[in-house]
Amino acid sequence: MIPITHFLAVSACIFCIGLYAVISKRNAIMILVGIELMINAAILNLVAFGRYDKVHYGGQVFALFAIVLAAAAVAVGLSIILMVYRKYKTINPDQITDLRD
Amino acid sequence: MDLILFYAFATLAITSALLVVSLKNTARALFLFFIVLFAMAGLYLFALADFVAITQVLVYVGGVLILMIFAFMLSNKELLSDLQNLSGSFIQLPNWQSLALSLGFLGLMIYGIWQWNQGYSPAWIDQNIKTGQIIHPKDNNINQLGVLFMSRYILPFEIISIFLMMTLIGAAHIARKGEED
Predict the structure, then answer these.
(1) Is A99 an 8 Å CB contact of chain B?
(2) Which of A5, B148, B179, B180 holds its CA 20 to 30 A away from the CA of B142?
(3) Bridge partners for B81 per DSSP
(4) Which string of DSSP letters, residue by residue, matches chain B?
(5) What is the pTM of this model?
(6) What are the tens digits of pLDDT across the range B33-47?
(7) Interior CA angle at B56 toward B104 and A68, to 5°?
(8) Given CA atoms B8, B12, B18, B23 in this order, what sign does their dihedral have?
(9) ipTM higher than 0.85?
């Protein structure tokens, strides 16, 4: 059995890489990739703790829920990015200042 | 042996994630993101969550990443390279500031984990270890998950199904309205 702190350390690294992508990138798709990395780190924590819960399987069940939520978020985010690209001809979040003209 | 494989997957995930955030070329970064997701699925296997790993490969690699590459290719050629010539931004900080911020956060979390490792573990983990209620490699995970989804977690399951349908319809609606303009 791999100790749980190893899982926590790896997921902390992945989470911080995602955080770096979210706050430093100038491309909306890369920001979405950073958010996905952070969600993946959270899912790794969930399954690592879920190993100790055989009765309710809470960790794995909510890891699956988190995957579904991330998929929904990506679908909506990408359609918004496409719309914004059509309107502004850029996906740099700096240059997108209003929701409608 | 377990530990060696675990660390192989962990280094694969972390190094390719670092490459993803450091590459200037967005298309290459997106294709490297494949490797990160596969390595994360491998890490889930070591937490004895085989069904979660398979779902990760199906949903993320099969759905999310393909969607991202589509959206990326439907936008501009000039976006192949990261736009770095701008200043005076709203949320984006310069690279070194964001690096310092995330490294500080990493240090904080590692310190927290190290503190947590010093003999303290939650009561429910201790109790489950004592009564033997932890998942073993030979358990029938998928069977148990199916039973639990249809009994204990039926309400969240239905809610998330409806939520997923709503968001997909909403996404299609947003994307469709643009074409009429």
Answers:
(1) no
(2) A5
(3) B25
(4) -HHHHHHHHHHHHHHHHHHHHH-SBHHHHHHHHHHHHHHHHHHHHHTT-HHHHHHIIIIIIIIIHHHHHHHHHHS-GGGGB------S-SSPPPHHHHHHHHHHHHHHHHHHHHHHHSS---HHHHHHHHHT-S--TTS-HHHHHHHHHHTTTHHHHHHHHHHHHHHHHHHHHHHHHHHH-
(5) 0.88
(6) 999 999 999 999 998
(7) 90
(8) positive
(9) yes
Dig out the tokens for B127 from the structure. Answer: 């109790």
* CA–CA dist A53, B94 (Å, integer): 43
What digits encode the pLDDT tens for the residues B129-141?
Answer: 888 888 888 888 8
A30 neighbors B80 (Cβ within 8 angstroms): no
- Smallest CA-to-CA distance from A67 within B154, B61, B174, B47 is with B61
Shortest CA gap B44–chain A (Å): 6
> Between the CA of residue B105 and those of A42, A48, B78, what are the distances in Å?
15, 21, 33
